[in-house]
Amino acid sequence: QLVSALHNLTRHVVYRGLTRAEDILSLFPENFHQNLKNLLTKIILENISAWRNEAQASQISLPRLLDMDWRVDIKTSSDSISRMAVPTCLLQLKIQEDVALCGNSPVVSALTVELSKETLDTMLEGLGRIRDQLSAVANK
Amino acid sequence: MLRLRRAPAPGPGGAGGAAAAAMGLLNFTRDPVPEAVSGDMHNLNQLSAQQFSALTEILFRFLIEPKEQVERFLTQLSDFATMNKISLGPLKNIVKSILLVPNGALKRNLSSEQVRADFIALGLSEEKASYFAEQWKVNSPTLTRLAVGQTLMINQLVDMEWKFGVTAGSSELEKVGSIFLQLKLVIKKGSQMENVYIELTLPQFYSFLHEMERVKTSLESFS
């Protein structure tokens, strides 16, 4: 019962985003032991940002990008043309499935995608537009 | 023994081509040519210049867009057969034989001289061989580009969509206010499309953009 009560307290603090000692102190009932109240508040305050970050990290979300690697190949021959020199890009994305679903053993998958030069140019155009939109939002 | 693939090409194609033809070696293939081909070439020679040029046009139009237009190609062939009072069966065989040459030529990047020489070696008249070779020269850039485009690609990225926004709150945090970026990648796996959804944080997005720009520089240095 004690643990559950503590848990509820901390969850409430994190949820509300309380960062000031007074706000936390005001949660305790009137006749609560003074020193205990201060001690608990102090401990909670110390941990609050770590707890918030963890809560954010384990939010439900779409699969998240963990890492990416790339390499450029030159295709020299194929069954339809025996001699050519066509550069192409291989992109490997490491993706972690929804953290909230996986708990402590997240599923990480690697997806390898091939892009031609044209596709890459179009993609960069799109990414550039995202960047412009982002800075427009940031400057508002 | 040295194949005469690049016959004395700089010189007038005629001399080199004729030498290759005389030796019975063909530019467009190393394998022996099926028996039927010389008979088909003989039949081709019977066509008038006009008929031959109409047939050539149908063939090249097919080559330029083969995948979608097989139906149209077959229709055009049967129209041609009816119009010129040729039976469709033999015409199809003739067409099959003719197509051997451009297919091999495309694969080996042959010049129009070599194509002409091959047709002459197979028994086609000089006039018709030259005409076909001319058409080959005109169409080969498009055909080459098509062939390169058909090269095998693994998990080709076909399309990308995105949206970004702000996470307002969650069941654990009442007010959040963090920016997320969601990408939808459409990938061609074999013959099917697959959608992949990924979420990125802002710093991840910027480093992704940076890496992609490095890839572009790398690709450009190789083109």
Automatic annotation (TrEMBL), chain A:
COMM domain location: 64-138
InterPro entries for this protein: COMM, COMMD9, COMMD9_N
Species assigned in the record: Balearica regulorum gibbericeps
Pfam families reported in the protein's UniProt record: COMM_domain, COMMD9_HN
Protein name per UniProt: COMM domain-containing protein 9
